[in-house]
Design brief:
Elements: H1 4-15, E1 22-26, E2 31-35, H2 40-48, H3 53-72, H4 82-94, E3 97-100, E4 103-106, H5 107-116, E5 124-129, E6 132-137, H6 141-158, H7 162-176, E7 178-183, E8 186-189, H8 195-204, H9 207-227, E9 229-230, E10 233-234
Antiparallel strand pairs: 1-2, 3-4, 5-6, 6-7, 7-8, 9-10
Helix pairs in contact: 2-3, 3-6, 4-5, 6-7, 7-8
Length: about 240
């Protein structure tokens, strides 16, 4: 029978290995950073979220964000940095072949597209409507993770009400991207508000203003999907992406 102290010592040695050979080009930094490779526990955490439907997809975002930030200790990574990092970690762990129906693409092509792409969309903007001014910005992975935790709690309260859950996801997506809201001489630091007050404020804004905020978000998501598309195949970054048979 193996000595428990020897096993513990052996595991510590493995965990102490500098797995810094996964180099990824980071769009927000315009530089290459090193990330630790995925381990089996992280893969298990990712895959386990697939069974929970809408709630699982929300949990997946939080889990993946934490894996990325833990593996780099970089608190400045933006949400649009997640895709190239996730792809690079997946290639290192499971290979670069990606299958979609009867088509197969090389994920290395996607990474190459990210490195060659000139990220032209602004990280910040100010949206105005009838005297109301809203400052929006691309959140960091850590900021998004904090919001997603609150969203997970709300989805649990909603239960199996999918319509309500989809509404919550829509509102929380807007919440992620707002930094300040002002009207007249009053300026609200939106990031310091409690989540309930954030939602109340969002829901009180004119629809036209919210539509402009959504447009800012959609432009970022659109660029991301374009970069994820190769030969008419769009790579889906979801739990199954990290579960290759």
């Amino acid at each position: 029978m193996a000595d428990q102290n020897n096993i513990s010592s052996f595991i510590k040695k493995i965990e102490g290995i500098k797995s810094d050979n996964v180099d990824v080009y980071i769009p927000s930094r315009k530089a290459t950073l090193a990330f630790q490779c995925l381990n089996l526990k992280q893969q298990k955490d990712i895959i386990s979220s697939v069974v929970d439907g809408v709630s699982g997809l929300v949990s997946f975002t939080r889990i993946l964000n934490k894996i990325i930030t833990d593996s780099s200790n970089d608190v400045t990574l933006k949400v649009y940095d997640r895709v190239p990092i996730a792809i690079a970690l997946r290639i290192d762990a499971l290979g670069s072949e990606y299958k979609s129906d009867d088509k197969v693409i090389d994920l290395a092509e996607v990474l190459s597209a990210y490195k060659d792409h000139v990220h032209s969309l602004p990280d910040t903007d100010t949206i105005k409507y009838k005297g109301i001014s809203v400052d929006v910005r691309v959140p960091t992975l850590i900021e998004e993770g904090d919001i997603v935790k609150k969203l997970e709690e709300e989805i649990k309260r909603n239960g199996d009400n999918n319509n309500k859950n989809l509404g919550s996801i829509y509102v929380y997506e807007i919440v992620k991207f707002i930094s300040t809201v002002s009207y007249g001489d009053t300026v609200i630091d939106y990031t310091s508000l409690k989540i309930g007050d954030k939602i109340k404020l969002i829901e009180s804004l004119p629809l036209a203003l919210n539509k402009s905020i959504i447009r800012f978000i959609e432009n970022i998501r659109k660029e991301e999907r374009e970069l994820l598309t190769v030969d008419e195949v769009t790579v889906e970054i979801d739990p199954s992406f990290f579960d290759v048979e």
